[in-house]
Write a structure and sequence with these properties.
Shape: elongated
Radius of gyration: 33 Å
Strand order of the largest sheet: 4-3-2-1-5
Distance between the termini: 130 Å
Number of helices: 7
Protein backbone atom coordinates (compact mmCIF):
# COMPACT_ATOMS: atom_id res chain seq x y z
CA UNK A 1 0.00 0.00 0.00
CA UNK A 2 2.89 2.32 0.77
CA UNK A 3 4.30 1.67 -2.69
CA UNK A 4 0.97 2.54 -4.32
CA UNK A 5 0.75 5.70 -2.22
CA UNK A 6 4.25 6.71 -3.26
CA UNK A 7 3.43 6.07 -6.93
CA UNK A 8 0.25 8.13 -6.62
CA UNK A 9 2.34 11.09 -5.46
CA UNK A 10 4.08 11.08 -8.83
CA UNK A 11 2.23 13.52 -11.08
CA UNK A 12 2.85 11.55 -14.27
CA UNK A 13 1.36 8.40 -12.74
CA UNK A 14 -1.68 10.33 -11.47
CA UNK A 15 -2.26 11.86 -14.87
CA UNK A 16 -1.95 8.50 -16.64
CA UNK A 17 -4.40 6.78 -14.28
CA UNK A 18 -6.98 9.58 -14.48
CA UNK A 19 -6.64 9.64 -18.29
CA UNK A 20 -7.27 5.89 -18.49
CA UNK A 21 -10.33 6.22 -16.22
CA UNK A 22 -11.73 9.00 -18.39
CA UNK A 23 -11.22 6.90 -21.53
CA UNK A 24 -12.89 3.85 -19.95
CA UNK A 25 -15.89 5.88 -18.73
CA UNK A 26 -16.25 7.51 -22.16
CA UNK A 27 -16.16 4.11 -23.89
CA UNK A 28 -18.84 2.76 -21.55
CA UNK A 29 -21.07 5.77 -22.19
CA UNK A 30 -20.54 5.49 -25.96
CA UNK A 31 -21.37 1.76 -25.97
CA UNK A 32 -24.65 2.55 -24.17
CA UNK A 33 -25.45 5.29 -26.73
CA UNK A 34 -24.74 2.90 -29.63
CA UNK A 35 -26.97 0.18 -28.16
CA UNK A 36 -29.82 2.63 -27.67
CA UNK A 37 -29.38 3.93 -31.22
CA UNK A 38 -29.33 0.44 -32.77
CA UNK A 39 -32.33 -0.67 -30.71
CA UNK A 40 -34.31 2.37 -31.89
CA UNK A 41 -33.29 1.78 -35.51
CA UNK A 42 -34.47 -1.85 -35.47
CA UNK A 43 -37.92 -0.78 -34.29
CA UNK A 44 -38.39 1.54 -37.26
CA UNK A 45 -39.27 0.25 -40.71
CA UNK A 46 -37.54 2.46 -43.27
CA UNK A 47 -39.96 3.39 -46.04
CA UNK A 48 -40.88 6.46 -48.12
CA UNK A 49 -42.56 8.21 -45.17
CA UNK A 50 -39.74 8.02 -42.62
CA UNK A 51 -36.69 8.16 -44.93
CA UNK A 52 -36.15 11.82 -44.07
CA UNK A 53 -36.34 11.13 -40.32
CA UNK A 54 -33.87 8.23 -40.63
CA UNK A 55 -31.42 10.38 -42.62
CA UNK A 56 -31.65 13.16 -40.04
CA UNK A 57 -31.10 10.65 -37.22
CA UNK A 58 -27.93 9.45 -38.97
CA UNK A 59 -26.65 13.03 -39.21
CA UNK A 60 -27.34 13.64 -35.51
CA UNK A 61 -25.61 10.36 -34.59
CA UNK A 62 -22.46 11.36 -36.50
CA UNK A 63 -22.48 14.82 -34.90
CA UNK A 64 -22.73 13.30 -31.39
CA UNK A 65 -19.90 10.85 -32.16
CA UNK A 66 -17.57 13.64 -33.30
CA UNK A 67 -18.49 15.80 -30.29
CA UNK A 68 -17.77 12.99 -27.81
CA UNK A 69 -14.40 12.30 -29.44
CA UNK A 70 -13.37 15.97 -29.39
CA UNK A 71 -14.40 16.39 -25.74
CA UNK A 72 -12.47 13.26 -24.81
CA UNK A 73 -9.28 14.51 -26.47
CA UNK A 74 -9.59 17.98 -24.87
CA UNK A 75 -10.23 16.46 -21.42
CA UNK A 76 -7.17 14.20 -21.61
CA UNK A 77 -5.00 17.10 -22.78
CA UNK A 78 -6.25 19.23 -19.87
CA UNK A 79 -5.50 16.43 -17.39
CA UNK A 80 -1.95 16.15 -18.73
CA UNK A 81 -1.23 19.85 -18.29
CA UNK A 82 -1.81 21.11 -21.83
CA UNK A 83 -3.29 24.62 -22.01
CA UNK A 84 -6.53 23.75 -23.73
CA UNK A 85 -7.71 27.38 -23.83
CA UNK A 86 -4.76 28.45 -25.99
CA UNK A 87 -5.16 25.34 -28.11
CA UNK A 88 -8.85 26.10 -28.71
CA UNK A 89 -7.99 29.67 -29.63
CA UNK A 90 -5.44 28.46 -32.17
CA UNK A 91 -7.91 25.91 -33.55
CA UNK A 92 -10.53 28.65 -33.75
CA UNK A 93 -8.32 30.78 -35.99
CA UNK A 94 -7.52 27.80 -38.19
CA UNK A 95 -11.21 26.88 -38.32
CA UNK A 96 -12.12 30.38 -39.44
CA UNK A 97 -9.64 30.15 -42.32
CA UNK A 98 -10.87 26.70 -43.31
CA UNK A 99 -14.49 27.85 -42.94
CA UNK A 100 -13.97 30.66 -45.43
CA UNK A 101 -12.46 28.22 -47.91
CA UNK A 102 -15.26 25.69 -47.42
CA UNK A 103 -18.22 28.04 -46.99
CA UNK A 104 -20.02 26.65 -50.06
CA UNK A 105 -19.56 23.13 -48.70
CA UNK A 106 -21.11 24.13 -45.36
CA UNK A 107 -23.96 25.90 -47.17
CA UNK A 108 -24.75 22.63 -48.95
CA UNK A 109 -24.75 20.73 -45.64
CA UNK A 110 -27.00 23.27 -43.93
CA UNK A 111 -29.47 23.31 -46.82
CA UNK A 112 -29.37 19.49 -46.94
CA UNK A 113 -30.45 19.36 -43.29
CA UNK A 114 -33.13 21.95 -44.10
CA UNK A 115 -34.47 19.72 -46.91
CA UNK A 116 -34.63 16.71 -44.59
CA UNK A 117 -36.26 18.54 -41.69
CA UNK A 118 -38.86 20.44 -43.74
CA UNK A 119 -39.52 17.54 -46.14
CA UNK A 120 -39.02 19.95 -49.05
CA UNK A 121 -39.13 17.10 -51.56
CA UNK A 122 -38.72 13.33 -51.69
CA UNK A 123 -37.48 10.77 -54.20
CA UNK A 124 -40.01 10.52 -57.03
CA UNK A 125 -41.27 14.10 -56.76
CA UNK A 126 -41.45 16.19 -59.95
CA UNK A 127 -39.60 19.50 -59.71
CA UNK A 128 -38.75 22.48 -61.89
CA UNK A 129 -35.09 23.56 -61.95
CA UNK A 130 -34.45 26.73 -63.98
CA UNK A 131 -35.66 25.90 -67.52
CA UNK A 132 -35.59 22.13 -66.97
CA UNK A 133 -38.06 19.79 -65.32
CA UNK A 134 -37.38 16.37 -63.89
CA UNK A 135 -37.91 13.71 -61.24
CA UNK A 136 -35.91 13.54 -58.00
CA UNK A 137 -33.78 10.39 -58.20
CA UNK A 138 -31.79 10.88 -55.02
CA UNK A 139 -30.40 13.41 -52.58
CA UNK A 140 -28.02 13.64 -49.64
CA UNK A 141 -26.72 16.42 -47.42
CA UNK A 142 -24.67 17.96 -50.25
CA UNK A 143 -26.38 17.33 -53.57
CA UNK A 144 -29.71 16.56 -55.25
CA UNK A 145 -29.98 14.43 -58.40
CA UNK A 146 -32.74 15.13 -60.94
CA UNK A 147 -33.59 13.02 -64.01
CA UNK A 148 -34.73 15.35 -66.79
CA UNK A 149 -38.07 14.49 -68.40
CA UNK A 150 -36.94 16.09 -71.67
CA UNK A 151 -33.76 14.14 -72.48
CA UNK A 152 -33.36 11.76 -69.47
CA UNK A 153 -30.07 13.45 -68.49
CA UNK A 154 -29.09 13.19 -64.82
CA UNK A 155 -28.59 16.64 -63.32
CA UNK A 156 -26.65 17.05 -60.06
CA UNK A 157 -27.46 20.20 -58.13
CA UNK A 158 -25.71 21.58 -55.04
CA UNK A 159 -28.21 21.93 -52.20
CA UNK A 160 -27.32 25.61 -51.75
CA UNK A 161 -29.22 26.22 -55.00
CA UNK A 162 -32.49 24.95 -53.54
CA UNK A 163 -34.08 28.36 -54.17
CA UNK A 164 -34.02 27.52 -57.90
CA UNK A 165 -36.07 24.32 -57.35
CA UNK A 166 -39.86 24.19 -57.13
CA UNK A 167 -42.23 21.21 -56.97
CA UNK A 168 -44.56 20.84 -59.96
CA UNK A 169 -46.24 17.43 -59.71
CA UNK A 170 -47.93 15.17 -62.25
CA UNK A 171 -49.99 17.91 -63.93
CA UNK A 172 -49.83 19.47 -67.38
CA UNK A 173 -51.48 22.79 -68.16
CA UNK A 174 -52.12 23.64 -71.81
CA UNK A 175 -53.19 27.08 -72.97
CA UNK A 176 -55.37 26.77 -76.07
CA UNK A 177 -56.19 29.94 -78.06
CA UNK A 178 -59.54 30.14 -79.88
CA UNK A 179 -60.74 32.93 -82.21
CA UNK A 180 -63.05 35.68 -80.96
CA UNK A 181 -65.36 34.93 -83.88
CA UNK A 182 -66.23 31.53 -82.37
CA UNK A 183 -69.41 31.64 -80.28
CA UNK A 184 -68.86 31.04 -76.56
CA UNK A 185 -71.21 28.04 -76.31
CA UNK A 186 -69.52 26.46 -79.34
CA UNK A 187 -66.07 27.13 -77.83
CA UNK A 188 -67.09 25.52 -74.52
CA UNK A 189 -68.50 22.49 -76.34
CA UNK A 190 -65.31 22.04 -78.40
CA UNK A 191 -63.03 22.36 -75.35
CA UNK A 192 -65.13 19.78 -73.47
CA UNK A 193 -64.86 17.45 -76.48
CA UNK A 194 -61.09 17.95 -76.58
CA UNK A 195 -60.80 17.19 -72.85
CA UNK A 196 -62.79 13.96 -73.23
CA UNK A 197 -60.62 12.84 -76.16
CA UNK A 198 -57.39 13.56 -74.29
CA UNK A 199 -58.65 11.64 -71.24
CA UNK A 200 -58.86 8.49 -73.38
CA UNK A 201 -55.14 8.60 -74.29
CA UNK A 202 -52.92 5.97 -72.69
CA UNK A 203 -50.93 7.35 -69.77
CA UNK A 204 -53.38 10.17 -69.05
CA UNK A 205 -55.45 9.82 -65.89
CA UNK A 206 -57.82 12.72 -66.53
CA UNK A 207 -58.25 15.94 -68.49
CA UNK A 208 -60.52 18.84 -67.60
CA UNK A 209 -61.38 22.05 -69.42
CA UNK A 210 -61.08 24.90 -66.91
CA UNK A 211 -62.76 27.42 -69.20
CA UNK A 212 -61.58 30.87 -70.25
CA UNK A 213 -58.23 31.80 -68.78
CA UNK A 214 -57.55 35.17 -70.42
CA UNK A 215 -58.65 37.56 -73.14
CA UNK A 216 -55.68 38.22 -75.39
CA UNK A 217 -55.07 40.64 -78.21
CA UNK A 218 -55.91 38.23 -81.02
CA UNK A 219 -57.62 35.27 -79.28
CA UNK A 220 -59.46 33.93 -76.26
CA UNK A 221 -57.19 31.76 -74.10
CA UNK A 222 -58.74 28.54 -72.73
CA UNK A 223 -56.99 26.34 -70.17
CA UNK A 224 -56.76 22.53 -69.99
CA UNK A 225 -55.61 20.62 -66.91
CA UNK A 226 -54.17 17.14 -67.54
CA UNK A 227 -53.21 14.55 -64.88
CA UNK A 228 -50.69 11.90 -65.96
CA UNK A 229 -49.61 8.59 -64.41
CA UNK A 230 -45.84 8.87 -65.01
CA UNK A 231 -43.93 12.16 -64.71
CA UNK A 232 -41.18 10.90 -67.01
CA UNK A 233 -43.75 10.73 -69.85
CA UNK A 234 -44.84 14.35 -69.39
CA UNK A 235 -43.23 15.60 -72.61
CA UNK A 236 -44.54 12.79 -74.83
CA UNK A 237 -48.04 12.99 -73.32
CA UNK A 238 -48.12 16.74 -73.84
CA UNK A 239 -47.27 16.21 -77.52
CA UNK A 240 -50.08 13.64 -77.78
CA UNK A 241 -52.52 16.08 -76.18
CA UNK A 242 -51.51 18.80 -78.65
CA UNK A 243 -52.07 16.37 -81.53
CA UNK A 244 -55.58 15.60 -80.25
CA UNK A 245 -56.30 19.33 -80.01
CA UNK A 246 -55.26 20.01 -83.59
CA UNK A 247 -57.17 17.02 -85.00
CA UNK A 248 -60.33 18.07 -83.15
CA UNK A 249 -60.10 21.70 -84.28
CA UNK A 250 -59.55 20.61 -87.88
CA UNK A 251 -62.66 18.39 -87.74
CA UNK A 252 -64.68 21.31 -86.38
CA UNK A 253 -63.19 23.62 -89.06
CA UNK A 254 -61.82 25.98 -86.43
CA UNK A 255 -58.63 27.83 -87.29
CA UNK A 256 -56.04 28.23 -84.57
CA UNK A 257 -55.48 31.99 -84.23
CA UNK A 258 -52.00 33.40 -84.46
CA UNK A 259 -50.37 36.77 -84.17
CA UNK A 260 -50.71 38.89 -87.32
CA UNK A 261 -49.21 42.23 -88.21
CA UNK A 262 -51.01 44.65 -90.54
CA UNK A 263 -48.69 47.01 -92.38
CA UNK A 264 -50.15 50.13 -94.04
CA UNK A 265 -47.99 51.87 -96.58
CA UNK A 266 -48.81 55.36 -97.80
CA UNK A 267 -47.66 56.11 -101.29
CA UNK A 268 -45.38 59.14 -101.43
CA UNK A 269 -45.94 61.40 -104.38
Amino acid sequence: METIANLWKIQAVRQAVISILVIVITLVVWIIIRKISKSYQKKRVVDEKNRAASSLKSVIYDAVKISVFVLLVLTILQINGVNVTSLIAGVGVASAVVGLALQDFFKDIIMGIHILMDDFYQIGDVVQYLDDEGVIEGFNLRTTKIRSIYDADLITICNRNIDHISKTGDQIYIHQPLPYELASDKADKVMTQIAESISQCEGIVSCDSLGINEFRGSNVDYLLKIIIDDPMKKLSLKREALRVIRVTLEKERINIPYEQLDVHVDSIK
